[in-house]
Specification:
Elements: H1 4-32, H2 42-51, H3 60-79, H4 93-100, H5 103-115, H6 118-149, H7 154-160, H8 169-172, H9 174-187, H10 199-202, H11 212-237, H12 244-263, H13 270-277, H14 280-297
Length: 298
C-alpha cells in the first residue's frame, strides 16, 4: 500500500506511535521507582502547549538546525518499513538509511553552535563522541545482516525472515541482535547513556536554548526517533509485521524491555561509554561474524 494518503499520513502515524511510547515510558519508569507518574498523554499535551508559544531565535543557522533535525527524522520514517508497507524501496535501502540517520544529529549540532551556549556545546560534543563510539558496532551489525541476507534491501531482509518465528534474525543472528539493542539504548538517549542531556550536569545540553515552537518541534523529532529505532529493530530482527496491530505490539515489546533496563541503570560518563562500545559490543559482533563464517564454511 503506497497510496498518496498513506505517504501523507505516515509521519503523523509515526509521531503518534512515538509520542505514545514517550508517555508510556515515563509511566513505566515511575512505577519501577514506586511513583505514580504523569498522565500517559502528558507528552502530547506538552507538544500542543509548546507549539502555541513563541520561540527565541539566534539566527537563520539556528532555525535551519531545528528544521534539519525534524526533516531528517521524517525522512527516516519513509525508509523504515511500516508493517507490510515499504514506502521507499530499492536495492540499497539499509545503506542509504545509515547516511540519512546522520542528518538529524548534524542539524542539532548546527543549531546549538549558533546559540553559543556552553551547556549546549558540551551536550553536542558528548552526543557526537557517543555516536563515534556506537557507530563501529552498529556498522558491524548492519554489514553482518546485509552479508547474511545477501542484499541491502529491506524487502529481501524481511522476506528472508518469513516462514515462522524460527527464521527471525533475533534467533538466527542472536549476537547481532544483542549488539544492535545495546546500540539502541544510546541512540535513544536512555540510561546509562543519556550523557548528552544530563539535566543535573549540563541543564539538558542541546535542549537548553530551544524554547516555544522550536522545543515542540524537537519533541516531535524525538517521537519520530523513538518510532524509527523500535521499528528498525522489528524489521531487522523480528521479521517485520503483516498488520499494524502486530507491528505496534512488536515495537512496544522492544521498547518495554529497553525502558525497563534503562530505569534501573545509572548514568555513565562519555569516556566510559565510548570505551565500552569499542570493546564489549565490538567483541560480540566479531564473534557473530566468526559464527556466520563458520556456518558458511562447514
Amino acid at each position: 500500500m503506497n497510496s498518496v494518503w498513506f505517504l501523507v499520513f505516515l509521519p503523523l502515524i509515526a509521531f503518534l506511535i512515538g509520542i505514545s511510547f514517550m508517555g508510556i515510558g515515563t509511566r513505566i519508569v515511575a512505577r519501577i521507582q514506586r511513583r505514580y507518574g504523569p498522565p500517559l498523554i502528558q507528552p502530547f499535551i506538552d507538544v500542543i502547549k509548546l507549539l502555541s508559544k513563541d520561540s527565541i531565535s539566534y539566527g537563520w543557522v539556528f532555525d535551519m538546525g531545528v528544521w534539519m533535525a525534524l526533516a531528517g527524522a521524517a525522512l527516516v520514517v519513509y525508509f523504515v518499513p511500516f508493517a507490510d508497507n515499504i514506502v521507499l524501496s530499492g536495492k540499497a535501502d539499509v545503506v542509504v538509511l545509515m547516511y540519512i540517520l546522520a542528518i538529524a544529529p548534524l542539524g542539532m549540532a548546527l543549531g546549538t553552535a549558533q546559540a553559543k551556549n556552553p551547556y549546549a556545546s558540551i551536550g553536542i560534543s558528548r552526543a557526537l563522541m557517543l555516536m563515534l563510539g556506537y557507530d563501529l558496532p552498529l556498522v558491524m551489525v548492519i554489514l553482518g545482516i546485509i552479508t547474511y541476507t545477501g542484499s541491502a534491501s529491506f524487502a529481501d531482509i524481511l522476506s528472508a525472515q518469513q516462514g515462522g518465528i524460527g527464521n527471525w534474525y533475533i534467533f538466527r543472528l542472536p549476537l547481532f541482535a544483542i549488539v544492535y539493542f545495546w546500540v539502541m539504548i544510546a541512540e535513544m538517549g536512555k540510561h546509562p547513556f543519556d550523557v548528552l542531556i544530563a539535566p543535573s550536569e549540563i541543564a539538558s545540553g542541546p535542549m537548553v536554548e530551544f524554547s516555544g515552537k522550536y522545543l515542540g518541534y524537537l519533541f516531535i523529532y524525538m517521537a519520530l526517533h523513538y518510532y524509527a529505532a523500535c521499528a528498525l529493530f522489528v524489521n531487522f530482527f523480528m521479521g517485520g509485521a503483516a498488520t499494524f496491530i502486530e507491528f505496534y505490539l512488536k515495537m512496544f515489546s522492544v521498547f518495554f524491555v529497553l525502558i525497563c533496563i534503562s530505569a534501573v541503570m545509572a548514568r555513565t560518563t562519555t569516556q566510559r561509554a565510548v570505551y565500552m562500545y569499542w570493546t564489549k559490543p565490538v567483541v560480540l559482533a566479531f564473534i557473530g561474524w566468526l559464527a556466520y563464517l563458520g556456518w558458511r564454511i562447514f
